[in-house]
Write a structure and sequence with these properties.
- The strands form 11 sheets. Strands 32, 34, 35, 36, 37, 38, 41 and 42 form an 8-stranded mixed sheet that branches.
- This protein folds into 5 domains: about 100 residues, Immunoglobulin-like (Sandwich), CATH 2.60.40; about 110 residues, Immunoglobulin-like; about 80 residues, Immunoglobulin-like; about 80 residues, Sandwich (Immunoglobulin-like), CATH 2.60.40.10; about 90 residues, Immunoglobulins (Immunoglobulin-like), CATH 2.60.40.
- Helices cover about 10% and strands about 45% of the residues.
- The termini are far apart.
- It is rod-shaped, with a radius of gyration of 63 Å.
Length: about 550
């Protein structure tokens, strides 16, 4: 490279400077010498080499002591390049007849340290011009320049908005430069997350280069421009008994720490932190809630609905009624929204609401009226009615001869609640029969039956007793030798109605056939009417006399 038409050697600070002698070695060379020129032009010789004796001599120059080396081809090397080595050096070749000289310019370059932003502001305030920091790049040669960047874009000076002041200091002992650039800046809210950096531009042996600092983000303070109130709750809806947490926030930085909360029914705001908690809220907490800054400059509001659900069951609890009585039942609902109501009896969901115009034993049980608000999780109410239907014991007795003709079954059909206790006795003797069998007690009904094979006519008594009354019914039973007409047992379930309907149909058919037979044989009946009627009465009277005699004999024996 040439500087002003002269040969130039570019060297890096601290490295070795190598300067070849750019003269052709002439014939008859006696010696070669190197010198440098002072600013006033006077020479200072620093190295000598004889071409004949091959010896090298270095002049006593303090700046170059132990730093010089002169080769056989008269190339001069200087170790540990310094800024003071930036001079004009001259190579001289001397013969008896002539002195040849060739100058060389030395340029030294030093890369600065990485720039860093010092004295950073703790925070920035909007609408206020303040010092953001200082960008420092040390030990540069030649001097460099500093540029500020925001989010990768150059910050250009703007009066009262961007003010940049660059200062350069030189170390007199080393000759190195330190560049310091301060930045005064008026931030806005948009600078909250902006990255600020600085770049130093310097020169090296190969030309211009740059080096960037680490980016810095500043905490930008700005006033609150808007407040917001929110309801913090566990679900989407609020019901009675829940806790409500109100949170008020401002969009300033730093955010406000205190607010005024306005509660329905309160005329003055309640001073609190950014949260306000209400516990075990009731339905009267429904309304508009507000919050503002403590100076009441800004405000926000929200509406809260506290859902409720009331259930009134009439009657409720344990209710005791008599069979046949009427019992009106009502389940009244009051709620913040439409509620779903359903009834359960003895763990089974009912299709309709219960209504009792004439209570029966099967109406007794545990009734539950339950209601829910489907849109409000966890809001459910229920009340219970335990209905007890009481009745005095009612008895109906029946008898029939068993198929084997060896015994008779006597049945005592009992109704009543509480369940009556049944006792069988033999009338006259007073003896108690303990071999009775009972059917299952369902809907206030059951049967007690005994199987006997009486040798004589007897009278059996069925006694049914509960807390309300004692009921006694007797039935005459003939000896086993006298067959009795079978009597159907009462049934406790719905099948009895079906049996009765079938029996009515059969009876109707039989009656029709009998009427037809009666019409067909009317003439025959007129003919034999007198003789048959007389014979029938005789037989019936004999039968009655014989049966009455046996009953009298049995009664006489019992009395004896």
């Amino acid at each position: 490279p040439l500087a002003l038409g002269l040969y130039t050697v570019n060297a890096v600070y601290g490295d070795t400077i190598t300067m070849p002698c750019r003269l052709e070695v002439p014939d008859g060379l006696m010696f070669g010498k190197w010198k440098y020129e002072m600013p006033n032009g006077s020479p200072v010789f620093i190295a000598f080499r004889s071409s004949t004796k091959k010896n090298v001599q270095y002049d006593d120059v303090p700046d170059y002591k132990d730093r010089l080396s002169l080769s056989e081809n008269y190339t001069l090397s200087i170790k540990n390049a310094r800024i003071s080595d930036e001079k004009r050096f001259v190579c001289m070749l001397v013969t008896e007849d002539d002195v040849s000289e060739e100058p060389t310019i030395v340029k030294v370059f030093k890369q600065p340290s990485q720039p860093e932003i010092l004295h950073q502001a703790d925070f920035l305030e909007t609408e206020k011009l303040q010092t953001l920091g200082e960008c420092v790049a040390r030990d540069s040669y030649p001097e460099g320049n500093v540029t500020w960047y925001r989010n990768g874009r150059v910050l250009q000076p703007v009066e009262e908005v961007v003010v940049i002041n660059l200062q350069k200091f030189v170390n007199r002992s080393t000759g190195l430069f330190t560049m310091t650039s301060s930045l005064q800046y008026m931030p806005t809210k948009d600078d909250a997350n902006a990255k600020f950096s600085c770049v130093v531009t310097y020169y090296g042996p190969s030309g211009q280069k740059t080096m960037q600092s680490e980016p810095v983000v500043f905490d930008v303070h700005y006033p609150t421009e808007k407040v917001t109130i929110k309801v913090l709750s566990q679900g989407n809806t609020i019901k009675e008994g829940d806790n409500i947490t109100l949170k008020c926030s401002g969009n300033g930085n730093p955010p406000p720490q205190e607010f005024l909360f306005y509660i329905p029914g309160e005329t003055e705001g309640i001073r609190s932190s950014d949260t306000y908690v209400m516990t075990d809220v009731k339905r009267n907490a429904t309304g508009e809630y507000k919050c503002s800054l403590t100076d009441k400059s800004m405000m926000d509001s929200t509406t809260i609905t506290v859902h409720y659900l009331d259930l009134q069951l009439t009657p409720s609890g344990e209710v005791t009624k008599q069979i046949g009585e009427a019992l009106p039942v009502s389940c009244t609902i009051s709620s913040s929204r439409n509620a779903t109501v359903f009834w359960i009896k003895d763990n089974t969901r009912m299709q309709t609401s219960p209504s009792f115009s004439s209570l029966q034993y099967q109406d007794a049980g545990n009734y539950i009226c339950e209601t829910t608000l489907q849109e409000v999780e966890g809001l459910k109410k229920r009340k219970t009615l335990k209905l007890i239907v009481e009745g005095k014991p009612q008895i109906k007795m029946s008898k029939k001869t068993n198929a084997n003709k060896m015994s008779k079954t006597i049945i005592c059909h009992v109704e009543g609640f509480p369940k009556p206790a049944v006792q069988w006795t033999v009338t006259g003797t007073g003896s108690i029969i303990n071999k009775a069998k009972e059917t299952k007690y369902v809907n206030g009904k059951f049967s007690s039956k005994i199987v006997i094979a009486p040798e004589e006519n007897v009278t059996l008594t069925c006694i049914a007793e509960n807390q309300l009354e004692r009921t006694v019914t007797s039935l005459n039973v003939s000896a086993i030798s006298i067959p009795e007409y079978d009597e159907p047992e009462d049934r406790n379930d719905d099948n009895s109605e079906k049996v009765n309907d079938q029996a009515k149909l059969i009876v109707g058919i039989v009656v029709g056939l009998l009427l037809a037979a009666l019409v067909a044989g009317v003439a025959y009946w007129l003919y034999v009417k007198k003789s048959k009627t007389a014979s029938k009465h005789v037989d019936k009277d004999l039968g009655n006399i014989e049966e009455n005699k046996k009953l009298e004999e049995n009664n006489h024996k019992s009395e004896t």
